[in-house]
Design brief:
Number of strands: 7
Distance between the termini: 62 Å
Helix content: 40-55%
Strand order of the largest sheet: 3-2-1-4-5
Radius of gyration: 25 Å
Oligomer: single chain
Length: 337
């Protein structure tokens, strides 16, 4: 059998499609593997280049196959899609992955450790609970609004809303679901608080998170999320590449030599982009309460709305994050403006 040099693996839940080529690019392997056959198959192979899409389970398989000496590289699925010739089959996907992994211009995703994935799982669980808390809050506000009971907006005012509901002369049939929603609100809020404490403890123990927190607008949650998602910045040639990956740069619409820039692309990691935007809005709120000045942010606020300035500031924060992660330094306010 001809020696296999490159393999593309189309991951799935139970059945995996494998496509292998030799040094000349000739196809020498096409087959399906069950989940329990994966490790045994790759253990028998000599070290080779293995390409996978960065999807569910990809980091696990990358760590396992890497133990056998294989060079495992993960790629964003959107970057692999152009190499699919025609149709949507597992075999066509595996062939496209095998082709894409050899391209010199391809960008790869760093393989995450189990500890990093555990921290990101904490972030995702907290984000999920925050969405649930918002849903419960809206449900309580909507139901009590039907009885003419209202309170100012914000999660911190839900307690006042529930107290008003308890004092009101509501029908007995309405009090039972109200108490159920109130209990779910309190339980979800306590669970979010517990996960937030875990994230803060991780931020105190991580040197990278401590350095990132020196940037105005970045707190423990944003710092740990950035440190876990970006363990290696070598995939970004310059700081703008990171901000573009986060979807914070204008989307180009160019044709006939005329370049037009539209709104931000909103591509990439939505969670990190939202954290940076929220942090930027906090910085802007503090700056607007301060004294007028000639700094970059104050001049921008004179020309743009707060939300537009927040996007620009989030872009700038992302560039600063790239510099700090690459150079291993802390934020220097003297170089900010």
């Amino acid at each position: 059998m001809t020696e296999i040099t490159t393999i593309g693996v189309d991951l799935a839940k139970s059945v995996f499609q494998v496509h292998g080529v030799d040094a000349e690019g000739a196809v020498v392997l096409r087959r399906q593997l069950r989940r329990n056959q994966m490790l045994e198959f790759f253990q028998r192979l000599g070290p080779c280049l293995v390409g996978m899409e960065a999807c569910a389970g990809a980091h696990h398989w990358a760590r396992e196959l890497g133990k056998f000496g294989h060079d495992v590289r993960l790629m964003p699925p959107s970057y692999v899609k152009p190499y699919v010739r025609r149709g949507k089959t597992d075999q066509a996907d595996a062939e496209a992955i095998c082709e894409a992994v050899t391209r010199p211009s391809m960008r790869f995703v760093s393989v995450k450790s189990e500890e990093t994935q555990a921290l990101l799982m904490t972030h995702k669980a907290r984000e999920f609970l925050v969405r649930q808390l918002t849903q419960v809050t809206n449900a309580i506000r909507a139901h009590l609004g039907e009885f003419g009971i209202v309170a100012p907006k914000g999660v911190h005012n839900v307690g006042r809303l529930l107290e008003a509901g308890e004092r009101a002369n509501l029908p007995a049939a309405a009090r039972v679901p109200l108490r159920l929603l109130a209990d779910q609100f309190c339980e979800t809020r306590d669970r979010i608080g517990a996960l937030t404490k875990d994230i803060r403890r991780e931020a105190e123990a991580s040197d990278t998170a401590k350095r990132l927190q020196t940037i105005p607008g970045i707190g423990p949650i944003t710092a740990t999320a950035l440190a876990a998602t970006l363990p290696d910045t070598t995939g970004f040639r310059m700081s703008r590449d990171l901000s573009a990956w986060l979807g914070l740069t204008p989307k180009p619409h160019s044709s006939g030599g005329k370049e037009k820039l539209g709104r931000i692309s909103k591509m990439g990691n939505r969670y990190l982009r939202r954290l940076l935007y929220v942090g930027a809005m906090g910085v802007i709120a503090v700056r607007r309460r301060g004294q007028p000045g000639e700094d970059w942010l104050w001049r921008l606020l004179q020309r743009k709305t707060a939300k537009q300035a927040a996007i620009a500031l989030a872009n700038r924060m992302a560039r600063t994050v790239w510099a700090l992660l690459r150079n291993g330094t802390s934020y220097d306010p003297a170089l900010a403006d």
